[in-house]
Design goal:
It is a single chain. The chain is an alpha/beta fold. It is 45% helix and 11% strand. It has 14 helices and 10 strands. The strands form 2 sheets. An 8-stranded mixed sheet has the order 1-5-4-6-3-8-9-2. Strands 7-10 form a two-stranded parallel ribbon. Helix 9 links the parallel strand 4 and strand 5. Helix 4 runs parallel beside helix 9. The radius of gyration is 24 Å and the shape is globular.
């Protein structure tokens, strides 16, 4: 119907990335739906197992939607191009007109990304009162579970959500490629959906001081700043500007791994590691480009959405010392939009806990300016500074570290002044804070 004589029934791994991924995910979900329906039949089709039938039906509808989408996006020549292209001169994503469908989908993306950690929090809380998600009858012990049953429920929860992913889905410094694994293909589909350039992160723009080849060259550390309150847009930058960031190992705060959803996504995706000095050094020894956020938690807590100043922490120098020791060039990567992306209504509690304990404990409630648990829908605006050449020295002096630290933040100030008006931040001031 869509492609006429170009279509063939049997075309393994042909038809373009979107077609193959959607086909694999759709048929995998159909299989799961069939197993749920069979389980409902074999268990006697009793009323307390009816959720199996409804779950299977919902999955089959979603699977059918994926298969229909795959037919519509069949590319017989395999020449599908990404909607995002980069210009080596401007480094700007190509603007496209967003359809009403994608506008509506962007709100689903927003709610999903903003509140992903809450789904697992609610899951754990429900388990406290006897909800057993890993049972064929999850509500059997709901509100009437004994202590022994609660222990078993929590043992299964910890095993399935934390221990098994740690063992079976190890982190990898390089992007993982999936051909047969249905979970890997569904993970790719999830990434495509939440970071799609027509959705929440529409009309993203990137500016570069150098030709793109200079940023693709190995031996570079992309130092991102400012941190922002909830840096979900980093994934969109990596996805939409993959010609630069596809091979860059992204280091993130280890607390992210506490959320099973993030842990599964980052583990299946690859190219991401919890930030620890040992891990960073191991990757740098291979010559692979790396990326981290020097400001860390202290910078996050100094974030003031829509404030007159853009606070950037300069108190950390460890990343500079590491760059000298491994001979890695520094590339300032400024996220103009980061501070405005979310509001943090409970930030004062986190700041108080961090002041006395060194840990930003608190309620992870992230909202927009109207206190709705969504982002402020700030468009991505990123600038890459000049590549600062670093001479390798295994034992740098404090003077060398201080000098490179100063040069780095001078370059940050340069790209801030150059692009702030173009990106709509001309009324702000850059402030370096300790």
């Amino acid at each position: 119907m869509f492609h006429g004589t170009q279509w063939s029934f049997h075309h393994p791994f042909r038809g373009g990335k979107h077609h193959v991924t959607s086909q694999a995910s759709g048929w995998s979900l159909f299989g799961v739906a069939g197993l749920l329906h069979l389980a409902f039949i074999f268990l006697g089709m009793e009323s307390h197992h009816v959720y199996l039938m409804h779950s299977g039906s919902a999955l089959s509808w979603f699977a059918e939607a994926l298969l229909l989408y795959s037919l519509r996006n069949f590319d017989p020549e395999g020449k599908q191009q990404s909607i995002i292209t980069e210009s080596s001169e401007l480094g700007q994503s190509k603007e496209v007109h967003r359809s009403v469908v994608w506008l509506a989908m962007s709100y689903i993306q927003d709610i999903l990304l903003t509140n992903l950690h809450w789904w697992y929090t609610l899951w754990v809380m429900a388990s406290l009162v006897g909800f057993d998600a890993f049972s064929l009858a999850p509500t059997r012990t709901f509100l009437n579970a004994s202590l022994a049953e609660l222990v078993v429920i929590y043992a299964k929860l910890v095993c399935c959500l934390f221990l098994l992913p740690t063992i079976m889905i190890p982190y990898s410094p390089k992007r993982k490629q999936w051909r047969w694994n249905p979970f890997g293909l569904m993970n790719n589909l999830f990434e495509w959906f939440v970071f799609h350039p027509n959705g929440l992160f529409f009309n993203s723009k990137l500016r570069m001081e150098l030709p793109v080849e200079e940023y693709q060259r190995g031996g570079a550390m992309f130092a991102m700043l400012p941190h922002g309150i909830l840096p979900t847009s980093v994934g969109a930058v990596w996805y939409q500007f993959d010609s630069i960031f596809e091979t860059v190992c992204l280091f993130f705060g280890s607390q992210v791994s506490l959320c099973p959803g993030y842990r599964f996504f980052l583990g299946m995706r690859g190219g991401c590691l919890p930030v620890e000095r040992k891990r960073v050094v191991e990757v740098m020894k291979t010559g692979q480009n790396v990326s981290l956020v020097p400001g860390g938690v202290s910078e996050m807590l100094k974030c003031v959405p829509r404030g007159r100043t853009m606070n950037v922490s300069i108190k950390h120098k460890g990343f500079v010392r590491l760059a000298i020791q491994e001979g890695y060039d520094l590339i300032p990567t400024f996220f103009f939009h980061a501070n405005d992306q979310y509001d943090n209504p409970m930030g004062h509690l986190q700041l108080l806990c961090y002041k006395y304990t060194g840990v930003p404990l608190g309620i992870p409630l992230f909202t927009n300016c109207h206190l709705v648990p969504m982002s402020n829908r700030t468009q991505i605006r990123v600038a890459l500074g000049n590549r600062i050449h670093v001479t390798k020295n295994a034992a740098p002096t404090q003077e060398e570290v201080d000098n490179l630290h100063r040069i780095f933040y001078e370059e940050v100030h340069h790209i801030w002044n150059k692009y702030k008006d173009e990106f709509g931040y001309g009324d702000r001031e850059l402030a370096y804070v300790a």
